[in-house]
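Q: I have 245 residues here and want to know how they pack in 3D. Can you give me a structure?
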Amino acid sequence: RTRPAPSNTRAGGTNISSDLLGHDVIRLYSLVETAMMNMPAPKNDNAELRPTEVATMRDMANQTWESIREWLMAHPNMADRQAAAMHQGQFLTTALHMVCKLMDPPVDVVQSLIDCAVETVMWPDSNGWLPLHHACANGASGKVLSVLVQAYPEGKVHQDKRLRTPLHFAFFRKDAPVDQTSGVVNPDGHSNENMNRGGDDMDNDNEDVGNSMPDIVALLADSGAAELQDEGGMVSLVVLLESVF
């Protein structure tokens, strides 16, 4: 896959010519990368972070969001913004990918990065993950998911190297409560709750999307995503229904 990239960005994103852009342009990516590297992590896969560690993560994330906003304010030139947003670092990630991996990214930060270089929302990293995959896997809000979907609706059916769509990651979300009565998901990916709101809301990605499982599934499961199988033959909607019942 050939991606458009500034001529001053070296393959792999490890260096940008300082003569053309300057070190400060790389800083946009570095801000998020540094936050990712310094975030506390559980000692093993089964352990959970302590409340103090969660608070530390949130404080670090909030500082990162402010630093990104300050960088954008200091760089009004769209060419500089685009070059920084298109810079690829480790595993072919961009700043948008990295932001979607952090805790609860704000809508304004995600939208600003998309505005800098909208094509990055379509770029898979080395694992085949779009920013939308990362956002789903790391518990981004329904509003953030909606912004990513609005920018690239085809992302809902994009499969990674293991043939997983963003929907396959939705059931990992711990912050998405499931209502077993009003939140039952239908084969088309819409919940009974959403259907009761009226037909117009079901197909309008601009509407506010909540953080409940029915809301997230309704956003991600249409366009055929609910029927796509991963490499193990598992359909994401089946996994979600099993988690409900």
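Q: Anything worth noting?
A: The two ends are 40 Å apart (CA to CA). The first helix runs from residue 23 to 38.
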